[in-house]
Amino acid sequence: MQITEIIRKKRDGESLSEAELNFFVDGFTGGKIPDYQASALLMAIFINRLSVDETFWLLQAMLNSGEVVDLSMIPGIKVDKHSTGGVGDKTSLILAPVCAAAGVPVPMISGRGLGHSGGTLDKLESIPGFRVDLDLDHYKRLVGESGLCLIGQTKEIAPADKKIYALRDVTHTVENKSLISASIMSKKLAEGIDALVLDVKTGQGAFMKTQDDAKELAEMMISIGTKMGKQVRALITDMNQPLGSHVGNALEVVEVVELLQGNCTPEQQDCLELSLLLAAHMIVLGGKADDLDQAREIAESTIRDLSAFAKFKEIVAKQFGDPSALEDLNKLPTADHVETLTAETDGYLGMLDALAIGKGCVLLGAGRKTLEDVIDPAVGVIVRKKLGNPVTTGDPLLEIHYNDANKLKEALPLFQSAIKIDPDPVEPPSLIKK
User: Fold this and answer.
1) What is the pLDDT of residues 159-188, one digit of tens each?
2) For residue 125, what is the enclosing H or E element?
3) Which of 18, 66, 148, 379 is a plausible cystine mate for 100, CB 3.0–4.6 Å?
4) Catalytic residue IDs
């Protein structure tokens, strides 16, 4: 086979065979196919799409590029959650300790920021000392001991996805249902889970802009997971505005700590609500509750009695982080400067564009524009008003935390364009779509 012929076929809208997709995955993972040819094929796939069969073959090739972890020696039903990517979405850092505190083992292998959306690993690494690069033996031990482990892909776990994921991030080939499905499910099926809850985002700040696209993506991943013998549930949720109040790596850890300690501002209510709902589905799948109402009460109780916060501190310590930084938030990275955008008129917040805010945060340094970019964990935005809130002239709307004045100058027009104030009342979007 020749990679140039495979690129041509997909460029011209033809279907690829299982053998051709295996050839691409094996060749790119092994270094025989260079980035520029892999990028060409990814763009051809992005434009001309993959069929359901092609998507399944790509998933299998990526899954089989590494090791599939066996966690059968650990008691309990192992359940994980995955989000398709959003702005301010720190639910993994909330629901993972909640579920572990409720007795549901959560083996979580996460990714880094992708495009304008944040990454769980980047957020965790803003905690001083926290390591996401643990080996699989360490991973298995922590899931057994603590019911929880939060790591990145090891060299054994879907190495093809790790390379393809990084390339998609910097070649604008992210928003494709087949590539998203194969990427997510190859990691999740390799990590040793029995069940999976998916949070499929839709709206301005999501990769799936319409609810129909989000539903199609959810159905594709459920079909793949079921075919592989896993229980899979999906929620379609709103991403027209940032989730919660904090956007940016260390800033999002601050919000996680506040919520796990039982402190929730009105701007953070949607983040807490979604975290508890996703956790409830995980607790039901994990066999610790008979229905969502019972599971929701269990999840809420772990926040009330601070057992979820204790679990978060425990896993931070066991992954070589400094748990005292969760008690004294001043130990987390902090930006040198804050610029506040205020309301220029009275009215109601009618637009808080998550995509523009996410892109602005990338320009500040909270995300990557190239593979070589280094994350600045301190920068980001704090949202002071949410959609539908009444505002008065001079009210703070966005607090921009930055370290580089030139980067602020570049990002400021995006933040300004994200906000619109309407004279008449605005109905906020529903959080759960389906």
Assistant:
1) 999 899 889 978 989 888 999 899 889 988
2) none
3) 148
4) 82, 161, 168, 183, 187
